[in-house]
């Protein structure tokens, strides 16, 4: 089972290494890791997605909380709902004849064209994990040249919990 953690920490050069080492020492792989500044100067929010055994997540949360720079650790998966977004850039082979079809497919997934060349189009798509997967599957027949993804960012729901 996958679990999404939100970790708020002080800005420090070694905090990323400490968080990653703590998780990997326990034999878990970090599926996604995103870091960005928060609304409070001097603080960063890490969104970490880990796949492993459910009973270990509470132990990981407690151990992360013990790190000196860490201010708050929340397992968003346990809290009953969160909003997640991924960002992916997709460079697709695009001959002049195929461009209208690619752009029509991109429109279905609300992709934005961020670069256009003589033989390729680069698209930006944001959404949940399912949307990313479906978009890549829909564009695959045209010839995906390369992709780059941001990893998950997430916040707990402000409204109704699921």
Can you walk through the features of this model?
With about 160 residues, the chain is α+β, with helices and mostly antiparallel strands. It is built from four helices and nine strands. Strands 5, 6, 7, 8 and 9 form a five-stranded antiparallel beta sheet that branches. Strands 2-3-1-4 form a four-stranded antiparallel beta sheet, covered by helices on one side. The mean pLDDT is about 90.
Describe this protein with a few key phrases.
162 residues; five-stranded antiparallel β-sheet; alpha+beta; 4 helices
Q: Please count the beta strands (DSSP E, at least 2 residues each).
A: 9
What's the mean pLDDT score? 91
Taking Cα atoms only, what radius of gyration do you get, to the nearest Å? Answer: 19 Å
Mass-distribution shape: elongated
Distance separating the two termini: 18 Å
Strand content: 35-45%
- The H-and-E topology, N to C, reads as EHEEHEEHEEHEE
Largest sheet composition? 5 strands, antiparallel
Helix content: 25-40%
What structural category do the secondary elements indicate? alpha+beta
Low-confidence stretches: none
Count of discrete alpha- or pi-helical segments spanning 4 or more residues? 4
Summarize the structure.
The protein has 162 residues and is of the alpha+beta class. Helix content is 27%, strand content 42%. The strands form 2 sheets. Strands 5, 6, 7, 8 and 9 form a 5-stranded antiparallel β-sheet that branches. A 4-stranded antiparallel β-sheet has the order 2-3-1-4, with helices on one face.
């Amino acid at each position: 089972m996958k679990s999404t953690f939100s970790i708020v920490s002080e800005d420090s050069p070694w905090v990323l290494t400490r968080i990653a080492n703590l998780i990997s020492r326990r034999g878990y792989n970090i599926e996604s890791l995103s870091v960005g500044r928060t609304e409070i100067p001097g603080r960063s929010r890490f969104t970490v997605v880990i796949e492993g055994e459910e009973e270990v997540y509470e132990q990981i949360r407690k151990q992360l909380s013990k790190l000196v720079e860490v201010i708050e650790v929340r397992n968003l998966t346990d809290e009953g709902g969160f909003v997640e977004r991924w960002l992916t850039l997709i460079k697709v082979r695009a001959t002049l004849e195929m461009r209208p079809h690619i752009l029509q497919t991109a429109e279905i997934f609300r992709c934005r064209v961020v670069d256009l060349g003589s033989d390729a189009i680069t698209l930006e798509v944001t959404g949940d994990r399912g949307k990313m997967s479906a978009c890549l599957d829909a564009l695959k027949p045209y010839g995906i040249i390369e992709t780059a993804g941001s990893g998950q960012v997430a916040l707990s729901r402000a409204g109704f919990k699921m």
